[in-house]
Amino acid sequence: MIPFNPPPEPPDFDKQVRQPGNAWLLKNPDPKKGTKDYWSPFKSILADGFKNLCGYSVMYEPVGTVDHFLSRDNYRSLAYEWSNLRFASAWINSTKGTLDDQVLDHA
After folding, report:
1. Residues 14-26: pLDDT tens digits?
2. How buried is residue 54: exposed, middle or buried, by Cβ count under 10 Å (0-12/13-18/19+)?
3. Residues 60-74, buried b or exposed e (16+ Cβ, 10 A)?
4. Contact at 8 Å (CB) between 17 and 39?
């Protein structure tokens, strides 16, 4: 297994993602409404930090997605936390779903 040192939180992440995201959660407490995507503008920073390798398969991922290591469905309070984000292959991200306690993570 190749260990990752996650990239440091970008200076403007709190202002652009965490603050508006947590405000959105307060206004939308119903989990059925999901979450609002404020994190996508930071995908390239995450990809660079993971050297364009999927955080799970460690395979080169030219496109990739922003994955929430602990799912937004089970851990809404972590939806807008940088430490909970991974760069991942889209098929792994969608397949993983809410299997939070069944995924190894070395980040």
Report:
1. 999 999 999 999 9
2. buried
3. ebeebbbbbbbbbee
4. yes
